[in-house]
Write a structure and sequence with these properties.
Blueprint lengths: L9 H4 L1 H28 L4 H4 L7 H4 L2 H10 L18 H31 L5 H20 L7 H7 L10 H17 L2 H23 L4
Helix pairs in contact: 2-6, 2-7, 6-7, 6-8, 6-10, 7-10
């Protein structure tokens, strides 16, 4: 993975990577956040819906700061407001948290299907469309795995808290401190590379599955 301060350099050195990647990440995060919002609404909390988060507008789902950092440093995030007190049952918080990563996994599956369809139409696995789809599959498998990490500010923490009740009692101060410490460990250890490698493996499994179903060796 490239050094973050130099991510923007790809615009000049690899524009065919930079522009599709920014578009894919932006779209994928917006779908991720929309999934949180619509699931929360279905489970009884209309907070996100009332604040306009039933949209794919990146200015709403990500915000200007996140979009700017995506362009400059390759870092981006999104967030939707959730009021857990409005859920019908305790497990709803985990379902809402899980909805975002699952949306990314579903996107990876859909983009992989797009590769198969392109293969049927063109007779090959080359060209700009396939390149774009490959990037989209990889981006979404990595987003799925990353967001499922047991870090307090990520979705995975809320999902696992359903089975480990002590995780629910973490104070906001401790949550911030633990999250900062774990993120620092991610960046200074090979852990980030491991996540990317696992994302590549998952992407290959999904893509291979579609190609095998489509009769492509």
């Amino acid at each position: 993975m490239d050094s973050l301060p130099f991510f923007f350099n790809h615009l000049f050195t690899e524009p065919y990577f930079f522009l599709p990647w920014v578009l894919i990440i932006t779209f994928s995060i917006c779908v991720h956040e929309y999934a949180h919002a619509i699931t929360a609404l279905l489970r009884g909390d209309d907070t996100a819906a009332r604040q306009g988060h039933l949209t794919l507008n990146p200015l709403v789902q990500m915000g200007p700061v996140s979009l700017m950092l995506l362009l400059i440093a390759g870092i981006a995030w999104g967030a939707v407001p959730v009021d857990v007190s409005r859920f019908r049952r305790r497990s709803d918080a985990s379902l809402v948290a899980l909805a975002g990563p699952l949306a990314n996994l579903l996107l990876a599956i859909v983009f992989a299907l797009g590769v198969l369809i392109t293969r049927w139409i063109t007779g090959g696995l080359e060209g700009n469309v396939v390149y774009f789809l490959f990037l989209a599959i990889r981006a979404n498998t990595v987003l799925f795995l990353f967001n499922m990490l047991p870090i307090p500010i990520l979705d995975g923490w809320k999902v696992y808290a359903q089975w480990f009740p002590p995780m629910r009692n973490l104070s906001p101060v401790w949550s911030s401190q633990i999250s900062l410490m774990l993120f620092m460990l991610l960046w200074v250890t090979p852990a980030v590379g491991v996540i990317w490698n696992w994302g590549d493996h998952l992407a290959a499994i999904i893509l291979s599955g579609w190609l095998l179903l489509g009769g492509v060796g």
